[in-house]
Amino acid sequence: MRQFGRRLKNTLSSLIKNGVEPSPSEAGPGSSIASNVHEFPVDWTTRTDDYDDESILPVVVTEVDADRTEADADREEVLIEAKADVFNKLIDSLDLFDLDKLDDETRKLELVTYINEVISELELVISTEEHQHILEEIISDLLGLGPLDVFLADDEISDILVNEYDKIYIEKHGTLHLTRIKFRDAIQLRNICTRIATRVGRRIDESSPMCDARLADGSRVNIIFPPLAIRSPILTIRKFFKGKISLDDLSNFGSLTPQAAKVLALLTFCRSSILVSGGTGSGKTTLLNALSNEISPKERIITIEDTVELQLQKPHVCQLETRPPNLEGIGEITQRDLVKNSLRMRPDRIILGEVRGSESFDMLQAMNTGHAGSMSTIHANSPRDALARLEDMVTLTGFQLSSLNIQNKIASAIDLIVQVERQYDGSRKITQITEVVGMRENVITLQDIFLYVQNGEDASGRIQGSLTFCGFRPYLTARAEKYNLGEEFDKLLF
To answer: What range defines the domain where residue 413 resides?
Structure first.
């Protein structure tokens, strides 16, 4: 990557020296990148293999550079054809299945040898630099994710959104940008999507056009194919945070206060059953990972997910993942199947990545039968909405239970609801920490322990506020006292 970065900087320097630079009026705040991005498109076939902030800015081509740009375009077409010839001959003569049996380094060396042989056989008239460029791109196509590799290498990018082969967005620091990097065509995008799915035993095609998967680094992937996607395959990647994150880290990021972080840590240690509620991209999984750090290392934890995302920071963890049906439509293993099986695995805690269906009933049963301290996430806009959604899920399972019976099960199973929200400035905040008190007059009673109070914005438009203690003694004080931590709990609050 360092080599790639040097090449990018050299290219940018060359452009600036030749009078090609972003227009201040277009690149400034409030500019529409989307409206200018096609003025000077940078194809994956000609770009340098790295990413920098400048690559998302509009570039204006001056009249002085018109001839040079046209000549470069002609050469680009030649290189595209050359690479296509190499790629097609390589695919015809190479057994990719056998290559998959090799380790990464050996596989790459084998590919380099094959590609060099093919280039020699075709007698291509190309420079050493162009030879290296073709080599890098084909290896990236076969082993990596093509033009997306550069985004995956950037730790500041959180999401990669491919709407079409030539429309790739990224989220960086909470803001979406339309980049000028693109796939060669829809076929390249389709091939990479298929490879992502097959590597984790998933299927993606016209007959099964939706797929959840993950990358080798743990990043979450969603793919949707035509005919459901109208113009092109749509690829969404939520990047995996490589570092180990703690509640203290979230406090330093401004997601919650140090006081609230210590309270959550203590209640997690005391085996409070926690439901993390929030919208898509609000940071539910990140918070769940941070909470898991407060679990005693002596406890056995079973995690259950559709696609493995949780990276628990404990020694005794068993990770389970659902399985979709095979080509014949059989062999599916659901979250509910895994929750039922996990009860036979002697768990101390069960962590369900996301509760979304019939497994909700089994999860509540587990929390009420000796597995206190279990945790899960749910999509909801408030703690009250989270409980309503949970009730709806149990109702839809088909069990002959009254609404009152379901509410009683929920009230006895869930101790704490943590609401997380993604703010309009891109920041992620914990906005409510709410305890489930119990049932009162056929209604589940809630009490806020902490509530986010917004104080406006700073000069740069960033939201200002803090997670404020509501002043009421929590009912969960009794749980802290059970673990001889009642006095410490009081000191944190009062």
So the answer is: 247-493
